[in-house]
Amino acid sequence: xxxxxxxxxxxxxxxxxxxxxxxxxxxxxxxxxxxxxxxxxxxxxxxxxxxxxxxxxxxxxxxxxxxxxxxxxxxxxxxxxxxxxxxxxxxxxxxxxxxxxxxxxxxxxxxxxxxxxxxxxxxxxxxxxxxxxxxxxxxxxxxxxxxxxxxxxxxxxxxxxxxxxxxxxxxxxxxxx
Length: 177
Hints:
Mean pLDDT: 89
Radius of gyration: 27 Å
Strand content: 25-35%
Distance between the termini: 41 Å
């Protein structure tokens, strides 16, 4: 761990100069400079004092940042085959339920549909990759074909179906599947 660089990042994030941090922590500007260049190491009590001035703690300071996965391949997808509704749902972002949106790949076989979803807050967006779908919102139905997209606020009961089969990218917020 590069202690000096981490202290420098915290100092910069707090908008402090080396001199201002030195004044607040009752250390010399030269010591702060040497510390940030890893030419010296602080004692535990000095590090605690510095971190307190920087609005942090020892546990936060030494916590390693975990690399979050940004790109997902088909091997990462989680899928569910629903033989009753004749569809395949692929969650293309694993654990997306913890996020504010949830994108899925939905494959509707001929005659396939989704479960009716009750009204809820949020937004829903879809892009038809192949085939044609009927989007049922309340008592109305809308048609979208390959290359078209749809968007609606799910304030009424809604579901999607396809007479001949379709594949679409469907994004919901908040996650509802």
